[in-house]
Fold this protein.
Amino acid sequence: MTREIHSKKTESRERGFLREGIKAAWPICLGYVPIGLAFGVLAQKAGLQPLEVGLMSLLVFAGSSQFIAVSMISAGADALPIIVTTFTVNLRHLLMSSSLSLYLGRLQRGWISLFSYGVTDESFAVNLTRFRDGGWHWRPALVLNHTANLVWIVSTVLGALGGQFIPAGAFGIDYALVAMFLCLLVFQLRGKLHAVTAVLAGVLAVVLALAIPGNAYVVIASMAAATIGVFLKHLRPSLSGEKS
């Protein structure tokens, strides 16, 4: 009898984690569908088969890097430049993972590996906000990551399958990725310091993009803006006031 009660409580708790994670993931999934379709279309136009598109989404799972890779494939780039470029663009995941690690405690390595696989710009933004607000746990966060992952994979494959019928720029799909990043940025602006840091990062990125070849300017601008933000926080404590 005791085992049955314990089993029911465990099952109820697991369902709660699933429900919370899926509920938190659905806005990301809504954004992933048009972007995934757009990527699938572009990948199909670049000569990739639906299976190859699905494998790329499964193994890489990084929208911006996948778009860059497909663009370079279309331009006839060799494998090494594609690998180096996508690796450089994905270095921002080091910063995101470092921020999330503060909330994962003494989680076992296996779970950490599974969790880290699903970290993207969108899942990072949602999970970090919920961790900061309190009441969030690594289990629903894990569900969020992999719900978004599943939707992304399915969307990209569907885009590849229907690529011959869907124009690459239809319905503004080519702008969907940029629009989603802007929305995520707005949700992360919790005070004046965050706004100043965001603007500074944007300005630095534009300036460095004109001076530095490749995509290294993304990482350099992010790290420089974050460093300046830390100094500003100590010099002007009033800037660090967060929105309630």
Residues 2-188 form one domain.
